[in-house]
Amino acid sequence: MRTELISFIKKNSLIELSYRIPLLIRSLTLYAGVICFYVVAVVFKKNIIFDAGGYELSYFPFVMTGIIFSMYIISVLGTFALRMEEEKKIGTLEMLLMSPLDFVAVCFLFYVASFIIIFVLTLPVLLFALFTVKINFTPSIMLAILVIGLISFLVFASFALIIASFIIIFEKGRGISNFINTTFRILGGIYFPVIIMPKGLQLIHKALPISYGLNAFRDILFKGYNLIDVFPSILVLLCYGFVLWPLGIILVRFSIHRAKLKGTLGRY
Q1: Which of 1, 65, 76, 188 could bridge across to 210 with cysteines, CB 3.0–4.6 Å?
Q2: 189: how many CB neighbours lie within 10 A of its CB?
Q3: Residue-range domain boundaries for the chain
Q4: pLDDT tens by residue, 65-76
Q5: Taken in order 26, 28, 34, 40, is the CA torsion positive or negative?
Q6: pTM summary value
Q7: What residues does 50 pair with on adjacent strands?
């Protein structure tokens, strides 16, 4: 079974990476955005902002950490939606539902494959961030980053299940994927500090799971927090996971049942 899982992830990753021109265009678009933020930070380098953690930070480290975190958490969902839509379009989604693997597991494997694709595309951005944002990476900081990243990754996998249920029922997933992507990017504190938002939007920010993952990520990098220090954020993320994962599984089961009753599973 483990060999089959690895083969599944490898196959889907290689298929997506084989489209070199579209991947190149996506990469250049991402790099252009990073360069734009870098230029903005240089122009306004004397300005200091205060994030929700209450510490002073120049704009570029602030936005760069937000971009890095969102690349491996949010952007994966967009790639996942595109890949699932492609599977439905070419008619292989029905075959996947008939495979010995549970479809929830199939969705998670697609999610992992999407992460691998994003990691390959964004590796230059990660290296650029490591070069420009000076961080003292101690073993405790590295461990805390790995734990908060893994928990966030697993929690956001539940959104992949929700997107998959939309694709099965409505045959399109980019709408809900773009909505999640945009909401988290604007209200999650990725591009600008939350304190400049109106009070109502700050309340929405506090209700988003990405807020706790990203704030913990920045606290680890810029405050030197360890796992004990960010444990409250970890606990909140785990609570989100305990709620969102069952919800995602229920929606996937319901969407499959509904599609089977209507006979729309193989239709695009």
Answers
A1: 188
A2: 25
A3: 2-262
A4: 888 888 888 878
A5: negative
A6: 0.79
A7: 56
